[in-house]
């Protein structure tokens, strides 16, 4: 489900005024931060030409090779998110309907 993205003017109107007054229907604010993990294939000794399938679950790279063998690899590096400002904030009503989506910088 794609989220609507509102202009700053629309958000201010929705939030009833010039400040950041909260709408009466607001129940939850969800904020999202970006973070990433890296799997350096050369460092892990993985030849992409030998990989049949792969996926990442719980920060672990799962690989099925063409010969049928399976392997699990831990991340070679990771980057913590900067929690100073969220990348996105979502305002929700009591039914989890989005009232607004506020994009960070």
Summed up:
By secondary structure, this protein is mainly β. The protein is built from 2 helices and 8 strands, in the order αββαββββββ. A 3-stranded antiparallel sheet has the order 1-7-8. It has a 3-stranded antiparallel sheet with strand order 3-4-5, with no helix packed on it.
> Biggest β-sheet: count, sense, barrel?
3 strands, antiparallel
Spatial order of the strands in the main sheet? 1-7-8
Task: Spell the H/E element sequence.
Answer: HEEHEEEEEE
Total helix count?
A: 2
Radius of gyration: 21 Å
- CA-based shape: elongated
The domain tally reads 2
Strand content: 35-45%
Q: Total number of β-strand segments? A: 8
First-to-last CA distance: 23 Å
The low-confidence runs, each spanning 5 or more residues with pLDDT under 50, are none
Oligomer kind:
single chain
Class from helix and strand fractions:
mainly beta
Q: Residue share in helices?
A: 10-25%
How confident overall, as mean pLDDT?
81
Keyword list:
single chain; mainly beta; three-stranded antiparallel β-sheet; 10% helix; elongated
Topology, element by element:
Layout: H1 8-14, E1 28-32, E2 36-38, H2 41-44, E3 51-57, E4 60-65, E5 70-74, E6 77-79, E7 88-92, E8 98-103
């Amino acid at each position: 489900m794609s989220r609507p993205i509102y202009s700053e003017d629309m958000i201010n109107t929705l939030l009833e005024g010039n400040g950041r007054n909260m709408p009466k229907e607001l129940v939850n604010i969800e904020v999202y931060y970006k973070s990433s993990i890296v799997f350096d294939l050369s460092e892990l000794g993985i030849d992409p030409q030998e990989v049949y399938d792969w996926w990442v679950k719980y920060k672990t790279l799962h690989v099925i090779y063409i010969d049928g063998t399976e392997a699990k690899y831990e991340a070679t590096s990771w980057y913590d998110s900067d929690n100073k400002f969220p990348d996105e904030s979502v305002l929700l009503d009591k039914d989890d309907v989005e009232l607004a989506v506020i994009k960070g910088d």
